[in-house]
Structure formats: C-alpha cells, structure tokens
Design brief:
Layout (H helix, E strand, L loop, with lengths): L1 H8 L1 H32 L8 H21 L3 H12 L15 H44 L13 H37 L3 H45 L5 H29 L13 H14 L3 E6 L8 H21 L5 E9 L2 E9 L12 H12 L3 E7 L2 E9 L5
Parallel strand pairs: 1-2
Antiparallel strand pairs: 2-3, 3-5, 4-5
Helix pairs in contact: 1-2, 2-3, 2-4, 2-5, 2-6, 3-5, 5-6, 7-8, 7-10, 8-9, 9-10, 10-11
InterPro entries: HATPase_C_sf, Sensor_HK_TwoCompSys, Sig_transdc_His_kin_sub3_dim/P
GO molecular function: ATP binding; phosphorelay sensor kinase activity; protein dimerization activity
Protein name: histidine kinase
Length: 417
C-alpha cells in the first residue's frame, strides 16, 4: 500500500503532475483562439458552457501550438529544461540548444503538442474531479441535515447508494492521480526521443568534446614537461649544492642561480598554461619556449645540477618552424628530465640534433648500467614524447640498445599542423 501511495502521490509523481498542469496552462491561450474559430463555425453563442465545443476548441488549438513551436526555436530548450527538472529525465539525453533543423523542429512540435494535449486534459480533470469527489465524500453527511442532493440524480438519495458515495469520491481522486502518473510517465518516456539531440547535433557535440579533450591533453603535457623537468632539475641542483657547499662555493653559486632561473621560467610557463584554463582571463604573457630561444639555457640549467651533457647540434634552430621548434624543445626537455630522474649526475648524457631526409632527428643516450628508466608508476614522459611526435607526423622510439638507454625521435620538417 505504501508503494502504491508513493507511486501515485510521491515527490516524483507530484513533479510530473505539476509539469502537466503547466502544459494545461500553456494550452489555454490556444483554446481561446480555438473558441474564436469554433464559435462562428458552429453558430454557438456560449462556447465556454458547452463541454463538446470546449473539446472541439481544444482540438483546434493544438495544431496552432505546434506551429508556434516551429516558429520559435527556443521552445525546445525551454521544454527540455522543464522536463529535466520536473520529469526526472537525465539532462544528457536532452538537447540544450534551439531547434534549427527541420527534423528537430518537427520533433519539438510533436512534443509541444503532446505536452499541451496531455496537460490540458489532466489540468481540466484536476479542476473538476477534486470538487466533485469532495461532494461525493460529504454527501451522506449533507443528506442528514438536508434533502438537497446538490443537483445530483435522485437515485443517489437511496441509503445504500449514499453509503458508497465516499468510496466513489476517493476512487475518483485515485483515478485522477493514476491518470496523471500514466500521462507523466508517457511524456517522460517520449521526451528523449522528441527533445533529444539530432544526429548532426550529436556529431557536433562529439567533435567539440574531442577538441576540448585535445586541448586538455596538450595542457597536461605542457604542465608535465615544464613543471616535471623544473622539479627534477631543481632537486638535483639543490642536492649538488648541498654536497659542495663547503668545498666549491663557486659551483654552489652557479647552482643557486640556475635554481632561481629555472623556477622563474617555470612560473612564467605555468602562468601561461593556467591562463588558458581561466575562463575569461587573458593568456599568460610568457612565450612558449623553443629550441631557437632557449636550447642553450636549457642545457646550462641542466648542467648546473651536475648532469654532464654533451650536445651536438647540426641544425639551425632559427630555421625551424615555430611549432616544430616548440615541440622539439619539449621533447629535449623531457629527455633530459628523464635522465635527471633515472641517471642522476653520475653519467654523461649525449644529445644530438640534426636534419636528415627532410626530418629533424633528436637522439639522447646515457649508459644503461646506472640508469633505471623503468621505474614503477613512470612512463608518462615517454608517452608524452610519443604523443608529440605522432601529432607532428613523426616517430619516437625509446629503449635499451647495447647497454645504452637511447631515445630517438624523427619529426618531419613540414609539420602537418
């Protein structure tokens, strides 16, 4: 019994009932317009007092409602918002924007007609049934003090009929609630099909999500490469400075200067990346680092941490395109960061940058005996390098070869992006 009461009068049922009442209220202007058509057509003077003419006016008004929804594209988002909040339909299954295509407008017109049709019927019942039910429930008491049956048939004045009147009154209220539940459930079931996005809108939404995901992945790579490299470099530089604090003050000063330079540059890069994430904020002013602008500085800061780096550059960084120069810088930065993490300052890292067969080739090597590139939970840096190379149409390979950990990246000089 409790489940039945919750089904008929629970919070969800009441909200859907309210949604139907709103549909009935929206239908009233169209019913009035229908009366202006039905009255002269049937030569009726008082349409309002004739139930059959009222229903006919209602039937005439519904097509006008469908036309209205076609003329006003905002009908769909307004109706979708009402369905989302009052009918308990998942918002992801409903369209957010106005109906623009013929298919979307047709489905919106069908939904609007159903909403106003069902709503008009339930709203009319909600106005008529409760007073009638109250009269039936109170009729046995009324007849005790008066013989007036309030205009009801005289047969209802019989004793056994009067005894059943309260039951009939309660049954009418339950029937009204059941009709509202069924109508609300049908509208909730049809809403995703009629108010949901079209195939074109789903495709556009998927493309927008893919573009947003690509931006987020790029920002994640930028943060990982810049901040991760900075933390690794600063950690190694601070450790080396602590060890040589008493024996080599000049090296300590260089290490501290490198820490200051690294953190300042990283804060600028972090501000630039976060500026993209702040809606309405202007992007940060720090430019993205490139081989042409900061390769020497990157090598200097890396060496200040104690890592020995031998670099051979057979390509003119100034001749590279901005995109290629920027991505190549990040690849070199991540390769050196991996060496800092896994090889420490006890080995020599060999960096080579050259051009061959229309490709920019980047290689980084360090002895495998000391390095431990496959640390638990790692691998994000190498994955980021592979992603950058793939986006540029190039390739990236990393692994152990003849006792050496080697990273080899080939990027086409003519980038596809």
């Amino acid at each position: 019994m409790r489940n039945v009461a919750r089904l008929l009068f629970g919070r969800g049922a009441r909200r859907r009932w309210l949604h139907l009442i709103i549909g009935g209220a929206l239908a009233m202007p169209y019913v009035f317009v229908g009366q202006l058509v039905v009255g002269p057509a049937t030569h009726a003077r008082y349409v309002f007092y004739d139930l059959a003419l009222q229903l006919l006016s209602f039937a005439v008004g519904l097509p006008l409602a469908a036309v209205t929804s076609v003329l006003f594209p905002l009908t769909r988002p307004l109706e979708a918002g009402a369905v989302r909040w009052l009918c308990g339909v998942d918002g992801d299954r409903l369209a957010d924007g106005p109906a623009r295509t013929r298919d979307a407008k047709g489905r919106t017109a069908a939904w609007f007609t159903l909403h106003l049709g069902f709503g008009g019927i339930i709203a009319g019942m909600s106005l008529a049934v409760p007073p009638f039910s109250v009269v039936l429930i109170a009729l046995p008491v009324i007849t005790v003090f008066s013989d007036d049956l309030l205009g009801l048939p005289e047969a209802m004045g019989q004793g056994w009929v009067l005894a059943l009147m309260p039951v009939a009154g309660v049954a009418c209220l339950v029937a009204l609630a059941a009709c509202a539940v069924v109508a609300g459930a049908l509208l909730a079931h049809w809403a995703p099909a009629l108010l949901g996005p079209t195939a074109e809108e789903r495709l556009a939404a998927a493309e927008a999500r893919a573009a947003d995901l690509a931006v987020r992945n790029r920002l994640a790579r930028e943060l990982h490469d810049s901040v991760g490299h900075a933390l690794s470099a600063v950690t190694l530089q601070a450790s080396a400075a602590r060890r040589l604090l008493d024996s080599d003050p000049e090296f300590v000063r260089e290490a501290l200067a490198a820490i200051e330079d690294t953190t300042r540059r990283t804060v600028g890069e972090l501000d630039a990346v976060l500026g993209v994430l702040r809606e309405g904020d202007a992007p940060g002013t720090a430019p993205a680092p490139t081989l042409a602008a900061d390769l020497d500085g990157l090598l200097r800061r890396t060496r200040a941490g104690g890592l020995r780096v031998t670099a051979t550059v057979d390509a003119d960084p100034q001749a590279l395109s901005p995109v290629l120069s920027r991505e190549a810088y990040r690849i070199v930065q991540e390769g050196l960061s991996n060496a800092l993490k896994h090889a420490g300052g006890q080995v020599t890292v060999t960096l080579g940058i050259g051009i061959a067969d229309g490709h920019l080739e980047i290689t980084l090597e360090n002895p495998l005996a000391i390095a431990s590139p496959c640390r638990p939970g790692g691998g994000h840096g190498l994955r980021g390098i592979a992603d950058r190379a793939r986006l540029l149409g190039g390739t990236a390979q990393a692994g152990a070869e003849d006792g050496t950990w080697r990273l080899r990246v080939r990027l086409p000089m003519k980038s596809p992006i």
